[in-house]
Write a structure and sequence with these properties.
The protein is of the alpha/beta class and 375 residues long. The protein has two domains: 4-20 and 282-374, Alpha-Beta Complex (Aspartate Aminotransferase, domain 1); 32-279, Aspartate Aminotransferase, domain 2. The protein has eleven helices and 13 strands. The chain has helices at 4-10, 30-43, 50-68, 81-92, 108-111, 135-139, 164-174, 265-281, 283-301, 327-336, 358-374; strands spanning 18-19, 75-78, 99-103, 122-126, 146-152, 178-182, 199-203, 215-218, 307-308, 319-323, 339-340, 342-344, 347-351. β3, α5 and β4 (122-126) form a beta-alpha-beta unit. α2 packs antiparallel against α8 (265-281) and α3 (50-68) packs across α8 (265-281). It is globular and about 70 Å long.
């Protein structure tokens, strides 16, 4: 995807390390740093900075919409994916007897709003089998009481890729539920087809290579009335300063209701720059360049004395994961050799993006084999 020259120019820190942890933190290209500097310059003009701030916001929303397959009017940017899910819980206003389906491969942000004592719905767990979610197992959890099915398109835990079309079709056949999709581990890494999703959420500091501080929300117009957040604030209200402002508050319907306050403009600048960079490179090109590395890495990992958590015969995006009883020591060994991946509770996770190379994979595998012999 990148030539050695453009890789060194756009990602200079990668010259000195093997970075395989984009699923936790992406490495921004230089243009994101330049965008943040521009934000600082605009902010220093005081109120006059608002004009370029809002231009950046509109440009960022248009780019998010392009990646999601929506219009800019169907997109909002809040502070993070966790905030977006909590606002979604407010919007649904679940009642006793309602049911929500979550799954055990999902990140806490998409699961825990429904597990709080304040949530009055019953939560059902769609459980994975051999590291994969089977749609036939979901069907048995669906009923006329199901209000929401929420899942990640790519699991942070093991890289499983949800068959979204098949999942949505099953939900539509067996319940009136909405389908929320977290694309945090997919956006910017694989081509997306989200046409059937009812709510789309992503963070901004991983595969899209921007900064913290952004929750990218997509709500199609067809379900805007079902995703209207009844929160206090001002930016998202229909008439925050009108004559009746002390008598009632009415949210704008759909995506705008998720933008409850002043935008995090620094993050907005970064998001705009990062998505423009990815659009210029091409997500399809990123996927085509990185996918052979992921497949090669999975094949070779399967021959090592580890417990693979990533399913053997399922489609992949950028994540591979395995477990080892000495994971912490393996992680320390690799980190000392400037090989960066994620370690948590005995699980090691590898994440390969478009800026990774065949040399990165070979270095990882060579050093991992050595580490497995020594621990």
């Amino acid at each position: 995807m990148l030539t050695p020259e453009t890789r060194n120019r756009d990602f200079p820190t990668l010259q000195d390390m093997v970075y395989l942890n984009t699923a936790a933190e992406g490495i921004p290209p230089r243009c994101v740093r330049e965008a943040l500097l521009q934000y600082g310059a605009d902010k220093q003009t005081g109120m006059d900075g608002r004009e370029p701030h809002f231009r950046e916001l509109e440009a960022a929303k248009a780019l998010v919409a392009e990646f999601y397959g929506l219009t800019a009017a169907e997109v909002a940017i809040c502070s993070c994916a966790s905030e977006a899910f909590n606002l979604a819980a407010l919007a649904l206003q679940l009642q006793p007897g309602d049911e929500v389906v979550v799954n055990n491969l999902d990140f806490p942000a998409g699961v825990t709003p429904w597990l709080q004592s304040s949530c009055r719905a019953t939560v059902r767990v769609w459980r994975s089998v051999d590291g994969a979610l089977r749609v036939e197992d979901l069907v048995g959890l669906l009923s006329p009481r199901t209000r929401l099915v929420t899942a990640s398109l790519v699991s942070f835990f093991n890289g499983f890729v949800l068959p979204l079309g098949e999942t949505v079709a099953a939900v539509r056949r067996h319940s009136p539920a909405l389908v929320a999709v977290d694309v945090t581990q997919a956006l910017g890494r694989i081509p997306l087809d989200l046409a059937d999703a009812d709510l789309i959420i992503s963070s901004s500091h991983k595969w899209i290579l921007a900064t913290h501080g952004g929750g990218l929300v997509g709500v199609p117009h067809r379900v805007a009335d079902r995703w209207t957040v009844p929160a206090g604030g001002w930016f998202h209200l229909q008439d925050a300063f009108g004559a009746e402002r002390f008598e009632r508050a009415v949210s704008q319907p759909g995506a705008p209701s998720f933008a409850v306050g002043m935008p995090n403009f620094a993050a907005v600048y970064a998001i705009r720059a990062a998505l423009e960079y990815l659009r210029g490179v091409g997500v399809a090109q990123i996927h085509a360049a990185a996918q052979p590395l992921v497949e090669q890495c999975r094949r070779e990992l399967q021959g090592l004395p580890i417990e693979m958590l990533t399913p053997a015969n399922e489609p992949l995006a950028g994540i591979l994961a395995f477990r080892h009883p000495r994971a912490a020591e393996i992680h320390q060994y690799l980190h000392q050799r400037n090989i960066h991946l994620m370690s948590h509770a005995g699980r090691l996770r590898i994440a390969l993006h478009g800026y990774n190379t065949a040399d990165d994979v070979q270095t990882l595998l060579r050093e991992l084999r050595t580490a497995l012999k020594q621990v």
